[in-house]
Write a structure and sequence with these properties.
Rossmann fold, about 325 residues, alpha/beta, 7-stranded parallel β-sheet, 11 helices, 3 domains, single chain
């Protein structure tokens, strides 16, 4: 994998495609790739784009990419699609996304299945974003399936968050208001050539008055992606977001802890589903008899794992606290 990582860090498209395939499918070497690229992350500006279905997210992103490329910027796109209930694969995921950019060497597009994850982001997708980042594009754009407030998970990955709305959303604005107020850096009213566009802009601006000041300032922009109206202004705003004092880059330690927590939960889930450990069956029976709740059973299992098994190697900067001689 060393040669692959070396080529990946040079931004070679074939190496990027291969590394994404390995990480996406959790093939042999996936962990080695993710470990090797950790010191090289932070090369790209990561933008998350979400919003209700039907607001024109893909069309808006297509226009954004064209504008960024006209400015000499390179772009990676991770489009997270709904999953097939039969195969688990991305519905229409094999189609050519953003056809106008397919022959552009400065654009790399990958479509992934959401695999039933309501937020549109799953553990493997986080790894794919890191792989794209390490290849060194100027921007990595993540487009989620737009499943409502659960898309707030994008806030843990993206440095800049765009929530796309359409004119005349009405009650739909109320349904996603909490998520908008918490995650949005930019609220983009797309299809602003339609009726009620100005009213929707005013509604969103009024909503932002309720926003916690600690979350920073969010901006409402109006676009019509099909004609390019407002796209240059959006690109200007995205580039300005990295001026000194304006960036809202997630704390790396917090990001790593969150990804670690998501990964640990996934590993434990697979262990519970496949392990022949009789203690798991005993806990399930106790839940069935009403002696334990699910949370209580989970806590007992975690306690058993931590107390009785060497889950990690001793840390390199000091003696292991798992050794009874080193405990206070």
């Amino acid at each position: 994998m060393g040669r692959l990582v070396e080529q990946l860090l040079k931004g070679e498209p074939l190496a990027l495609a291969r590394a994404i395939t390995v990480v996406e499918n959790d093939l042999e070497g996936a962990s080695a790739i993710l470990t090797a690229i950790q010191p090289h992350l932070g090369r790209a500006r990561i933008i998350g784009v979400t919003g209700p279905p039907g607001v024109g997210k893909s069309t808006l992103i297509d226009a954004m990419i064209a504008e960024l490329r006209s400015r000499g910027k390179t772009v990676g796109l991770l489009a997270v699609d709904p999953s097939s209930s039969l195969t688990g694969g991305a519905i229409l995921g094999d189609r050519i996304r953003m056809a106008s950019h397919t022959n552009d060497q400065g654009v790399f597009i990958r479509s992934l299945a959401s695999r039933g994850h309501l937020g549109g982001l799953f553990r493997t997708a986080l790894g794919v974003v890191q792989v794209m980042d390490s290849a060194g594009p100027d921007f990595v754009i993540i487009e989620t399936v737009g499943a409502g407030q659960s898309d707030m998970e994008i806030a843990s990955v993206a440095q800049t968050r765009i929530v796309v709305c359409a004119p005349g959303l009405g009650d739909d604005i109320q349904a996603i208001k909490a998520g908008i107020l918490e995650i949005a850096d930019f609220l983009v009213v797309n299809k602003c050539d339609m009726d009620l566009a100005a009213e929707t802009v005013r509604q969103l601006q009024s909503m932002l008055k309720l926003r916690d000041p600690a979350l920073g300032v969010a901006t409402v922009l109006a676009t019509t992606a099909t004609t390019g109206l407002g796209i240059a202004a959006l690109a200007d705003a995205l580039e300005a977001a990295w001026h000194p004092g304006m960036a809202r880059t997630p704390d790396p330690g917090r990001r790593i802890r969150q990804i670690f927590a998501d990964t640990a939960a996934d590993v434990l889930r697979r262990h519970l589903q496949t392990s022949p450990d009789p203690s798991i069956e005993i806990l399930c029976e106790r839940v069935k008899r009403g002696e334990l709740g699910f949370e209580g059973a989970a806590r007992l299992l975690l306690k058993d794992l931590v107390d009785n098994r060497d889950l990690v190697e001793p840390l390199p900067f000091g003696p292991s606290t798992r050794d009874p001689k080193n405990r206070a």
